[in-house]
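Morning run. Coffee first, then this:
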Amino acid sequence: MLDDTLKSQLAAYLERVALPIEIVASLGADSNSVEMRDLLQTIQSLRSDKISVAYDGQDARKPSFSLKRAGTDTSLRFAGLPLGHEFTSLVLALLWSGGHPPKVEPDVIEAIKGLDGDFNFEVYMSLSCHNCPDVVQALSLMAIFNPKVKTTVIEGGAFQDEVTSREIMAVPSIYLNGALFGNGRMLVEEIVAKLDTGAAHRDAEKLTAKAPYEVLIVGGGPAGAAAAVYAARKGIRTGVAAERFGGQTNDTMAIENYISVLETDGPKFATALEAQVRHYDVEIMNLQRADKLIPASEPGGLIEIQLANGGMLKSRSVILSTGARWRNVGVPGEDQYRNKGVAYCPHCDGPLFKGKDVSVIGGGNSGVEAAIDLAGLVKHVTLVEFAGQLKADAVLVRKLKSLPNVTIHTNAQTTEITGDGHKVNGLSYKDRATSEVHHVALEGVFVQIGLVPNTEWLKGTLELSKHGEIVVDARGQTSLPGVFAAGDVTTVPFKQIVIAAGDGAKAALSAFDYLIRSTPVLVPPLATEAVQEVAVAA
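And here it is:
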């Protein structure tokens, strides 16, 4: 099952297993069970002194296997084969169970250990979903470090009957004690905070107590990361408050146009962004949503950012890089059937619609790419585009038109997403040339119609364009002194990763220039310590 290269890499990882691990498999006679046995035999053969495998499990889900550190009462189970994007999740579960420390802040581990109650999690994932590993790894970590947390990771393709009965049409889907807990990507900090109701208040108090920054960046996508690196390299106190570090790149499958990087995927790119920012000792405050910007009360004074949890951060300059999010169609049925047939990530949710009829709304690059991707999985794709022609690159349009199971409707206005009360059953659109309304029977609708800037919290505070973007000049300066902006949230044209990164660097340099020209005189932290040492010596 695993090639020699992968076996070699796995063997190297398993050398870090220090404590004995017990695996108990529940297998049937199907091909997936045969493959699971082969996988577990390979894992045991690579570290037989620390990993034992038994095949006498009686779990109702077959194939599946439990995994735990010997002598503990932890409960972690993988139902279906954890391959594809989830192979890393399996490796990490083995390492953590075997005593290798996770790369998680100590206070997060303590928060996990402090959870009290009965938490029985089931998470449904697909092997092609790039958002699923974060959830799988978070819940695996929680099960390993707290015996009151039980986690079962379920590969939807292997347990289609469960997916159908629970009407799961988007992954990851998380159930807690039998009830839906959440959909989509969630970090371990988010899950813990949702369970620990007092966590937000404690977090707010810690944030408010922090000393003022010289540069505070709001948003952690490519623009925010670049701004953080450039600011920190000036030797000044820099912080990043981000709702989700990596921003939209976390939801991007393939990145093939970032100069000097031939090809990567979004989650890897986001991880690399955060690693480089941390390399410069920038203080990252993740999972923090900004609610309000309070301008400085006097020239050169402190600007305040109020957070959703009630915390308050202060800084002498601020760089806004909150990015953008997928635009909604805004038609009846969209909200009602979100995650019940209405989806926004074809890479994540596409496999759930295998052999079914789906639609893609949007004829730009993202829409056409989504249609091409889905055409290889589903029975038929109907693409609906408002404009008179597709707006995607010519090479993509040619590829799309060559596919036999794709129908294209241009000059078509989506008017409604229909359903049976439980899930999507179709889409209605109006022919803009004839005003005739058509209905297409479908089981899934993928919305790909562009982006909307995350600026609702800034309305009435600084100048925004008619599209809600932050108006900036050539230096990234906004209408407020000391407040700069960069990336997709601004009026800068062309929303691209490389452009956002360049904008972030420019905004940081502009902020530094603002600081050295404003009062009081800017003194880098190292210089401040040197002055204090001289004063003591004198």
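Residues 367 and 448 are 5 Å apart (CA to CA). Good start to the day.
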